[in-house]
Amino acid sequence: MTTSDYNDAAVRDICYNCGSSVAKQSYNYFRRLDYITGSKVWSKVWSKGDTPVAFYYANRCRYHVRLIEIAVRKEYQGTGMGRKVLFDLLARMKQNGLYKLTFRTPMNEDAHNFWLHLGAKIVDVKGNDYEMEITIK
Ligand SMILES: CC(C)(COP(=O)(O)OP(=O)(O)OC[C@H]1O[C@@H](n2cnc3c(N)ncnc32)[C@H](O)[C@@H]1OP(=O)(O)O)[C@@H](O)C(=O)NCCC(=O)NCCS
């Protein structure tokens, strides 16, 4: 498995092949934000050969990190990839002295169980989404 920084084509490919309709909708937002901020977002992509497999995409804020998306290509789900990607992001946060990761996840998709399993807490309900966070130390 190789890793790289944000890559438009790879992220698009994963968004369309991870089984989440929300990821598909988010994709154009990633592209725009990457452009507007001059590639200042935190993002990393994992690939196997020519196949993009997983990525995270997050905004570094002053006291926390706002996760926009973590996604794993369908064929690779359930193989520990999601955990690996999340832990990589948490390690990067720690290196930067940031200990809180916040994000939203749709109530009608199964991913919130992944988050609860990995220690995230539901802190609010916003429309059809859970507002969640993970605190590390
Ligand atoms: C959610 C997602 C990132 C999980 O990635 P994954 O590679 O399948 O997860 P992993 O294989 O690393 O699983 C890690 C652990 O979480 C558990 N887990 C994974 N998905 C789960 C789910 N939907 N419900 C409950 N537990 C889950 C696994 O059993 C595993 O537990 P273990 O390590 O104790 O054995 C992936 O399913 C995905 O990309 N979904 C579509 C996009 C999405 O919804 N992203 C999140 C929106 S914020």
Explain what the structure shows.
With 137 residues, this protein is of the alpha+beta class. It has one domain (2-135): Gcn5-related N-acetyltransferase (GNAT) (Aminopeptidase, 3-Layer(aba) Sandwich), CATH 3.40.630.30. It contains 4 helices and 7 strands. The protein is globular. The mean pLDDT is 93. Coenzyme A binds next to strand 4, helix 3, strand 5 and helix 4.
Distance between the termini: 28 Å
User: What structural category do the secondary elements indicate?
Assistant: alpha+beta
**Beta strand count:** 7
Overall CATH architecture? 3-Layer(aba) Sandwich
Strand content: 35-45%
Domain count, please report it: 1
Question: Reading side by side through the largest sheet, how are the strands ordered?
Answer: 1-2-3-4-5-7-6
Question: In the CATH scheme, what's the topology name?
Answer: Aminopeptidase
- The level of helicity is 25-40%
Number of helices: 4
CATH homologous superfamily assignment: Gcn5-related N-acetyltransferase (GNAT)
- What form results from the Cα inertia axes? globular
Mean pLDDT over the full residue set: 93
- The radius of gyration is 14 Å
Low-pLDDT residue spans: none
Bound molecules: coenzyme A
Along the chain, the helix and strand elements come as: EHHEEEHEHEE
The top-level CATH class is Alpha Beta
Largest sheet: 7 strands, mixed
Note the topology:
Blueprint: E1 2-4, H1 8-16, H2 21-36, E2 42-48, E3 51-60, E4 65-72, H3 81-95, E5 100-106, H4 111-117, E6 121-126, E7 129-135
Parallel strand pairs: 4-5
Antiparallel strand pairs: 1-2, 2-3, 3-4, 5-7, 6-7
Bound molecules: coenzyme A.
